[in-house]
Amino acid sequence: MQKPERIIKGSDFMRSKDELKQAVCEAIDLERDRIFMLGDSIAADPELGYKEFNTAAKFIEFLEWLGLSYRSGIARTGVISKSKGRKSILNVALMAELDAIIVPGHPDANPLTGAVHACGHNCMMAALAGVAIAMKNSGALRELDGDITLMAVPAEEFIEIEFRKALRQSGEIWFFGGKQEFIKLGELDDVDMMIMQHSSSSDSQYRAGAAAPSNGFIAKLVRYVGKKAHAGASPHEGINALNAALIGITAINAQRETFRDDDHIRVHPIITRGGDLVNIVPADVRLETYVRGSSVDAIMDASKKVDRALLAGGDAVGARTEITDVTGYLPALLNENLINLMYDNLKVLLGGRNAATRICSGLGGGSSDQGDVSQIMPSLQAFFNCISGGLHTEEYVITDKELAYITPAKALSMLLIDILYDGARTGLEIKESFKPSMSISEYLSNWGSLG
Fold first, then answer.
1. Which one of 103, 145, 154, 261 is separated from 186 by 20 to 30 angstroms, measured CA to CA?
2. Per the domain annotation, does 1 fall within a domain?
3. What is the residue-averaged pLDDT of the chain?
4. In 156-255, which ranges are continuous DSSP H helix?
């Protein structure tokens, strides 16, 4: 990396931006073994959302080793560590996710819970640690005009809905997603923008992407209540709730041609309870589904159609239909200024224009609570194609640990320098040009009130 002339301002002696970027990358390389150890340790002990107590403890142990202060137990398992820069002009949050996903057939899955890090969140935590090392050990933060807040956040995977309902009922949480809960707890009130990254799987030529779109969604819990009877001797005396569910799913399928392609609607129900015994008419049948889409309006329109279809299933056989909507995640709002900065850094790190892309895909089929944050402040989630086998699958495997652990730490550190260098001039421009779709208070009163 070329070293331009150093900048002298008054009595201050500052390294150039490129010199700072080189320094943080060198600091990461010096502690790469510790970064690998943390990422591997988290992978070996996967925990599900709002249960990541061991994972949080591993990160806390790392912060204590590095000599950084922290707060823990935020939204049950979250950990926050804030470091001040030379001036506190801006506060940039850097997020990573603590939780694993359920893939029981994966060779590394916990035999009791089915949990496994088959979505790369251990890679995110390793990169978060790398950034902490970079900023502390290089001394870069003393030359930047803003604060950096590291956030290890629980429960990004929107699973175990009944468990999270119980947590809500007990008053431990309100939102089912960790970043959403951080917003509600006021942890983002003093944050100006948020950046993060995620592992990805791709057969494209690109090793990384500066950003990607993602859908939002509403989750639905559906219960069909019928009437029990002996399935062989007197089925005419029962009301078959499983038939109601099957008709409801079929009716959803009949709606699919009405979904606009541009809205990227996805509806994918599963039956979580299909009955009690084979010789009893099913009287308590339950489904879960998401209704995903690329905009809130599209999600709400599709949600009404799905409700109609589900109700038709119950009406057809005389079963009672209970539908509970649960607040899901909002679509990601892409920030062009942050995307361009990250793209430039990826080209430097990965060696040429063709090694990275600005936008990974035109279709954001997945969902993340990063989308919620992106609606209220400038936000970025970059992607690194370091895995094979596909996310959330039994074949998931990390194929390039350098690209999974080390390169993201360097890219995020370099982006922080871009944002906070020279009076945080670039960061201020990004903040001032950003037009939120809603304020935090509007988010909590509107999206947070859905249930």
1. 145
2. no
3. 94
4. 161-169, 178-184, 241-255
